[in-house]
């Protein structure tokens, strides 16, 4: 598996490849694994997603999640699927998925990524104040100063009736 994943990672790292070439390389590597290998399906979905072929990516992400992924890939697949379906106009479903992921593990390694995509989904669903609040709360811990102030203001934005 490590050798296989290293070869997949090398495809993703090769910036000289066109989106079509990435798909072709990832598909060749995925063919080395069983047809229902969740990790291979996830990688195939990501290649299509990166190439802008969201409708194909959606099906592959859903299948990978259904079969089951390790925690990090599950989080990544959830974020990526939610972003994909937001682009396909399924904004309510995207929002629900991202809200659940955002709230699931507040201190997880991909929490800020979940927050970023959750904020985008909030904007797409007509909730820009809540989006700003989520984004600012994710940003606040990274500030060299004013963390407490920004966090307080971010919470205040979300609580103000509009």
Quickly describe the structure:
The protein has 162 residues and is an all-alpha fold. It has helices at residues 2-13, 19-30, 38-50, 54-67, 71-87, 91-104, 111-124, 128-139, 147-159. The protein has 2 domains: 1-69, Tetratricopeptide repeat domain (Serine Threonine Protein Phosphatase 5, Tetratricopeptide repeat), CATH 1.25.40.10; 92-162.
Descriptive notes:
With 162 residues, the protein is mostly helical. The chain folds into 2 domains: 69 residues, Tetratricopeptide repeat domain (Serine Threonine Protein Phosphatase 5, Tetratricopeptide repeat, Alpha Horseshoe), CATH 1.25.40; 71 residues. It is built from 9 helices and no strands. The longest helix has 17 residues. The chain is elongated. The chain starts with a helix and ends with a helix.
How large is the count of helical segments? 9
Q: What is the arithmetic mean of pLDDT?
A: 94
* Count of DSSP strands: 0
Q: Report the span from N to C terminus.
A: 52 Å
What helical percentage do the residues reach?
Answer: over 70%
Number of domains: 2
**3D shape:** elongated
Secondary-structure element order, N to C? HHHHHHHHH
Task: Jot down its keywords.
single chain; 162 residues; mainly alpha; Serine Threonine Protein Phosphatase 5, Tetratricopeptide repeat; 2 domains
